[in-house]
Design goal:
The chain is an alpha+beta fold. It has 24 helices and eleven strands. The model has no long low-confidence stretch (mean pLDDT 91).
């Protein structure tokens, strides 16, 4: 109903009548359909006097969406306050109450006191907080409040987070002003690990993330990046392990040292095709992304925006971005829920003489009534493309030790698949995650008879996990030892069942997890 009413032809001479009808439906309507029709009509032309009524009817959840959409055109602060009132988690309620009551004195301390965890502050919540608090103005009124400054930076990071909907950063109207305020005052921040991670996260987004897509004045983004780069090279921002007491802090400091110069290296804008693997702040548990930039712009947030680019495990370790004479389709990204829920982004890659072609872009968008945006074909010099793929595939500078160990083991199994197939097993997920960042995890699927070519019930495989701790020695030597053990010993004798079905595990004589 909403797009139908919004699309109706409305001659200028009937605008007043439509506005009056919309107000009457909002104030006297007794069904959601009638009030929704009124809200949409007001969206075609309303005034400041409509803010209060829209804010009130929007408190009914079935009317919140239309009311927020109408308010976004009229008064973004009121739209954000309404959105937060209805959708914000309980942990944000002291801040939301201050907003709803119009208590300007309480807004700043409650904003500073908000939890920073992505569990409570998603990209959408971060944008609405910034809009509701009129954050750039708040920073201007309190220019020396470093706690407020750090919170503003964190909200920018959350808005651009690819794990959520990175479009929130683009949709935030005051985003350029807020970036400028935060970066210009960043030198006031105390040189803590939290603040160092914050500034580096902002730089990573400005370098190759959603921040690139904003409508920047010429040279402005480069200037902000340069300012952040100069600040983080100052000696006071160096992070020393001997002052960090917790293992999580030391891991975060290691990430900062590994990643610290990545966003300030040779600018991607000068390259036709560039790949930047980005591991985000471990404290935020953001995914490791393979960011593909074409003509300086990150492809996935530019055209998809419902989830991050796939990991290097998927795109680089498996060689999926390599170009062959035969075209092959590659999934570059999948929605943060699943493809079946909110879709995925695909492209077809092929080699054409001395060029590599990316073409036939495809988005799956289940349930969407809107057509996916069409993308042009891109042609790259083949030798430059191959060199960039080789560089990205062999670059481990972004990786922590256990993840590099996992990549070395995986590379060995890709080169010698018989190391697993001799045991009736096939390679599964091999990597290192946030829960156990000091361990490489090797998973494989077991199907009896696989090695002989007569698999037994291949639709009911059993999944195993083998954990390989990083012992601190040379990673290549550790990987060689792990591969040698796979060659000499049946991995089912030392790995643990982690997937499949309990019935199949018991049938094959393996204990099911937690059954002891």
């Amino acid at each position: 109903m909403r797009p139908t009413i919004a699309g109706l032809s409305l001659p200028a001479q009937e605008a007043d009548e439509a506005r009056a009808l919309g107000r009457a439906l909002i104030r006297t309507g007794t069904t959601a359909a009638a009030v929704t029709a009124g809200i949409v009509l007001l969206g075609r032309g309303h005034g400041p006097e409509d803010v209060q009524h829209l804010s009130v009817v929007g408190l009914f959840r079935e009317l919140t969406g239309p009311a927020v959409n109408a308010l976004d055109l009229l008064d973004r602060r009121s739209a954000a306050v309404l959105w937060l009132t209805v959708y914000a988690p309980d942990e944000l309620w002291p801040f939301v109450r201050a907003l709803w009551a119009g208590d300007r004195q309480a807004v700043r301390p409650e904003l500073v006191a908000l939890p920073t965890s992505p569990r409570f502050v998603s990209g959408s919540v971060a944008r609405r907080i910034a809009e509701a608090s009129q954050l750039p103005d708040l920073l201007d009124r309190h220019p020396s409040d470093t706690a407020l400054l750090a919170r503003a930076g964190r909200l920018l990071v959350r808005m651009g987070c690819s794990r959520d909907a990175p479009t929130d950063l683009v949709e935030y109207h005051d985003v350029l002003r807020l970036y400028g305020s935060v970066v210009s005052r960043a030198g006031l921040l105390p040189p803590t690990l939290d603040n160092a991670a914050l500034l580096l996260s902002l730089a990573l987004d400005l370098s190759s993330g959603t921040g690139v897509l904003l409508d920047w004045p010429t040279g402005r983004r480069a200037a902000l990046l340069e300012a952040l780069g100069q600040l983080l090279t100052e000696p006071r921002w160096a992070v020393a392990d001997d002052v960090l007491s917790e293992k999580e802090q030391r891991r975060r400091a290691d990430w900062f040292r590994r990643t610290g110069r990545q966003p300030f290296e040779s600018p991607a804008a000068t390259r036709e095709f560039h790949i930047q693997v980005v591991a985000g702040d471990p404290a935020d548990r953001d995914p490791v992304e393979t960011r593909v930039l074409i003509e300086g712009r990150p492809v996935v947030p530019a055209v998809f925006g419902r989830g991050p680019a796939h990991s290097p495990d998927h795109l680089l370790d498996e060689g999926r971005l390599r170009a062959w004479p035969e075209p092959h389709e590659v999934q570059l990204a999948e929605a943060y829920c699943t493809e079946g829920c909110c879709g995925a982004l695909y492209v077809t890659i092929r080699r054409d003489a001395d060029q590599v072609v990316w073409e036939n872009w495809r988005q799956t968008m289940p349930g969407s009534r809107e057509p996916a945006p069409e993308l042009p074909s891109y042609r790259f010099d083949a030798s430059a493309y191959d060199a960039e793929i080789e560089r990205a595939e062999t670059d481990c500078a972004w990786s922590w030790r256990a993840r590099t160990l996992a990549r070395l083991i995986k590379a060995g199994l890709i080169e010698e698949p018989d190391l697993l197939s001799r045991w009736d097993a096939g390679r599964g997920w091999i990597s290192s995650g946030f829960d156990s960042p000091d361990e490489a995890e090797v998973t494989f699927w077991y199907v009896p008879g696989l090695a002989s070519g007569t698999p037994e019930r291949p639709d009911s495989p059993l999944q195993f996990r083998w954990t390989v701790p990083d012992d601190g020695t040379l990673l290549e030597a550790q990987a060689a030892t792990a591969l040698r053990r796979l060659a000499e010993e049946d991995p089912k004798s030392y790995a643990q069942v982690c997937g499949g079905s309990r019935e199949r595990a018991e049938e094959l004589g393996f204990p099911w997890p937690g059954s002891d």
